[in-house]
Each structure stands twice: as C-alpha cells, then as structure tokens.
Amino acid sequence: MTLDVKIYSGAARTWNVVHSADKAIYSSIEFEGGKKIGDLQITPELNEMFEPALRQGQELNLHVVKPLQEGPATIIAFEEPEGKIFATDVPPLPLLLSLAPRLALVVGVLLIPAFGLGILILGAWSTMRSRIRPLVELREYVQRLPRAILVKS
User: Fold this and answer.
1) Of 47, 72, 95, 143, whose CB is crowded by the most CB atoms within 10 A?
2) How far apart are CA 75 and CA 88, in angstroms?
3) Nearest-angstrom CA–CA distance, 153 and 137
4) Is the pLDDT reported for residue 79 higher than 80?
5) CATH code of 34's domain
C-alpha cells in the first residue's frame, strides 16, 4: 500500500472551518475556478500559518493525504507562491514499534512447525505492517519536500 497524497492548487474563494483543541476541520474549501474540496483536517500549529494565507487569497498548493479509513483527509503541507513550504513534522516511530513487525515475522517463521502458532503470528505481522507502513511513508514524504519548514504538533 502506498500513501495517497493529492496536491490541490489555487487561491481559495470561500471556506468553512470549525476549530477544536486538537485540529481544525474545513468542511469545504472552494478555489477560484469553482474547484471544491471538503472534509479536511489540519493540526492547529500548521493552521496558524495556513489560515492567514487563505485570508490573503494567496495561490496555494495543498498536500492532502487521503484517510485509510472513514474520516476527513489531512492537510500535511502547503506551499505559498514564493516557494515557502510549511509541513507537519512527523516524528520517527519509537524503536520498539519500528522493530515489532520484523520481530513478529522472524518469530512467526520459527514457530510455524509448533502447532501452527507461527501462522497466527504471521497474521499479526501482516496487520502491524499495514498499520505502521503509512506512518513511515508519511514521514518520508514530508522529509522529501524541498526546504520545508517543519511545524511540530
């Protein structure tokens, strides 16, 4: 599975936003030319730079990650016309969490002869890997953005 990032460009004409303690949710953003996107979330720290850029009517490039399950998509970065890129800082995974899928794979393979217990562990490996991989890909995507100003959340 690969990370599904879409880039939307344009100057916003209208938008609806609701703020909460841990995120801002944009129910819709309509760009000049009529293109409209909706159901987006953004961290409050990144929104502090994003909302003024919206109000100024700047031409923006939004980097939006589609959700893996139901829920709003997430704005992970935006680029201003002068080339400044603001992005959410995605911290690295803790060592134990990043090693857990590899450990489960090794233990699962070793325990296959023991009453099929290895099959269960291999199933756990597959589940862990599918949940951790998008976080790793998101961090790699943000790290590849040239000259991005990382905003801690």
Assistant:
1) 47
2) 9
3) 18
4) yes
5) 2.40.50.140
The full DSSP string for 59-117 is: EEEEEEEPPSSSS-EEEEEEE-TTS-EEEE--PPPPHHHHHHHHHHHHHHHHTTTTTTH
* Contact status, residue 73 vs residue 62, Cβ threshold 8 Å: no
Each residue's pLDDT tens digit, 34-51: 889 989 999 999 999 999
Structural domain harbouring 46: 5-89+146-151
The number of angstroms, rounded, from the C-alpha of 66 to the middle of its chain's C-alpha atoms is 8
Q: What is the pLDDT of residue 50?
A: 95
**pLDDT, tens digit, for every residue of 120-153?**
777 777 777 788 888 889 999 999 999 999 998 7
pLDDT at residue 115, as a whole number? 64
| β-pair type (36-42, 73-79) | parallel
* 34 domain residue, yes or no: yes
| Amino acid at the residue 32 | E
Number of domains in the chain: 1
Q: How distant is the alpha carbon of residue 145 from its chain centre?
A: 13
Answer yes or no: is 100 within a domain. Answer: no
